[in-house]
Amino acid sequence: MKRKSWKAMTAAALTSSLLLASACTSNGKETETKQKHAKADLQVPVTDYTFDTAGNMFAYSEFELSGEPLAESLGLDLDVLDAQKIDKPTKFDYTAGIESYEYSEEAMYEVTEKSGLGLHLIHGPVAKRLAKNVHKTSDEALAERFYELADSVGYPREEIFRNMFPTFIEYASGDPHYAQKVDTSVYAENDDGTYVPVYQVDFQSLRWDRNKMEKVLTPSAYGGVFLKQALWAVDFLGGFHTVDKDEEIEAKTPNDDKDENIALGVSSADGMQGMILTEQIWNKLNYIRDHLFYNANNQSLTKASGSRYNPAHGFVYLPHKVQVVEDGNQLAPNVKQLQVEDPRSLLQDQWLMLWPASEFYGMTDQRPENKNQNPAFLAVFDGAPYPSAPKENLDADAANDISSTDPYSVNRDVLLQIFKNIDAMHFNPKIGAFVEEHDGKQQGKRVDTFQAGYTMEALRIFERAIDGLPVGYASGEDAKGLETPEGKRALELIKNQADFIIKHLMRKDGLVANGYVIGEGAEKSEPTLLAQLGAIRGLTAAFLATKDEQYRDAARKIYAAMDKHFWDKKLRVYRTGKGKIEYTPFVAGALSGVFRVALNNLNNTEADETVKALERETIISRYVDFYDRIIDGPSLKEGMQASEFWDTGDVYKKDDKSGNADHDHVPQVQAGHGKYGIAPILLNVEVKGK
């Protein structure tokens, strides 16, 4: 992968301040568009400014995978990309390699380091234990821990961002408008006439309004963030780099970093970010395991038991909503009380936790029998800077497992308990499909096509991780696995659900029904785009996991029918339902993911495969139109992407007050929607013709 620093680096040193501070609108003129053709034929107004954490982080995870990794897999040399060279070398290359990828990365930092949308890392379980052990205050102990992490990757201590709000767990939703004026004053000037604004190195002015946050812990929300964190941590820490030249080098052994000129991480800056993400994940997992599981028998929150958990003795699972009552601290609120607001188990919550826990399992896996492990990851979890797992937890015998707080063990506890619950609570063996909810006592009766499809994809990643196969960007690669009992069961579940889609959900017109109600059959409602996307993702996952061509054939058939039924030739966008073109982050993320699997796995490759919709040129055209017309939108006040940052081309110049230096349709953060601007995240929109 091409390596780019996760922040604009400057020669000037920063004074580190890890604890936070408290929480200019420009009427920028549009001067030209990135497209030669006009976008005046459609309108894409925002319909809701609420930031949905689950939807956004899910969408940006798909955007990430449909960004640089996709462009590179199609033959692009990533080194030729330049954020300042719009649409070069081609519009698709720029859209995938710059926009899709960088939008994804920046949104993650907004949530986990800048906004305050959650609980501060100083209150994380691991951070509090550390502070107690070293007899220091939480903020002092966390500052020292960040210095330790910086040293492990060769990152200058003095260049750690100021006034961060690193979260260990995130809330369900919030208002993404900034609560105060963003500090765009000059921090450092560059030779090309641009400058680094203060807000890029000091996050104090980027807080969101805490009074407008939904202070609820929902698995799909903190799980969606976990997915973003895990994917980027795997990327950032998947190699070593030289200390003297900061050049990435391939990891050959777990001891390479013992060389004084070799450090952890693919670069100093990216390595530092990878360490911060891993620290956040580690604290999050300890909190989830020890505090957020719900015992259906006694109706109280409890601790997960992981490999020793047996659903037959009573369900212990992640409930849909846990209300957080904060302690009133204005700078870094802590939990005063947790209250279960909705005790149901929802399938979306479970798969959006299973997927990231599987990705992180692949990163932390230290089992001796796994011969596919990346030595760079083993070096990260060899005791410094992260503890290794006890040997009892690395063998195949669950009977001798011990409770541990190390990253591998705590993640495994969460992962296995969620997997067992998806099987026991959501899979209906009589019909061979996943139902969308369980109240703790009995299953519901509805199968949701979208949720079932993405459960299949999450199970595919789980099977790869538990069987010791590559995950992350390499999750499509072939390798020999360990063939564990859990992996075999995951494959059985995937195959059952795939067969159910083909037999019970596919219609005569090639589309799939939105759902299925046990005892009644497939739903007769007008099919939605979201259902088609879920089915395509799920069937493609089944094909990749089993190599059974019937699942690829079915996915291709649904894709072709979707393109025929939903494509609006006039507006060049997909309709989302009958008479509707309403895009949420979940729809946008799923569409981005389907474009990727269509290009990689479903496109015409044989002489007898002549479906026009599955020609690569057609898919790429649809991909570009989607990002251009719906994500970026036709004007500065329209489109899903609310604002943008340096990495997608919008630089700061003293003589440019437009708030849109690259003259596209996405404003700079301080010039976006609202009095003080808006974070670079996704909004709900409606598409209309003019």
From TrEMBL:
Biological process per Gene Ontology, one example term: carbohydrate metabolic process
PROSITE patterns: PROKAR_LIPOPROTEIN
Keywords, ordered alphabetically: Signal
Superkingdom field: Bacteria
Residues making up the signal peptide according to the UniProt record: 1-23
SUPFAM superfamilies from the UniProt entry: Six-hairpin glycosidases (SSF48208)
Protein name as it appears in the record: Uncharacterized protein
Species annotation: Parageobacillus thermantarcticus
